[in-house]
Amino acid sequence: MTAYTTPIPPRTPAAGLALGLVLRAVLLVVGSGLTVAAFGLWLMPGASQLPELALIKLGLSLFFLIGGLCCITGARGGR
Predict the structure, then answer these.
(1) Which of 5, 59, 61, 66 is most deeply packed, by most CB within 10 A?
(2) DSSP 32-70
């Protein structure tokens, strides 16, 4: 029985940099979208104005706003 091993080439710094840039861009786009959606919930003209839904809309918009701001802050990196 014989076992063959193949050495794994080391990752280049350019590959890590490209992956980091893509991740930061995705976080920035998702964070911006969530932040705009938080305010868009209140600006929709066809939305129901029932008082029972106001608390749900408030909670959902706060969740979107906090999540979006966390994504935007995470996209800034470790500076």
Answers:
(1) 61
(2) HHHHHHHHHHHH-TTS---HHHHHHHHHHHHHHHHHHHH
As given in the structure block, the two tokens for residue 6 are 């193949």
Residue 17 has pLDDT above 80, yes or no: yes
Provide the residue count of the chain.
Answer: 79
Q: How many CA atoms lie within 13 A of 36 on its CB side?
A: 6
How far apart are alpha carbons 37 and 67 in whole angstroms? Answer: 11
pLDDT of residue 31: 96
CA 55, 59, 60, 61 torsion-angle sign: positive
Can you tell me which residue has the tokens 């999540």?
67
C-alpha closest to that of 34 among 74, 76, 71? 71
Q: pLDDT tens, 19-44?
A: 889 999 999 999 999 999 999 988 87
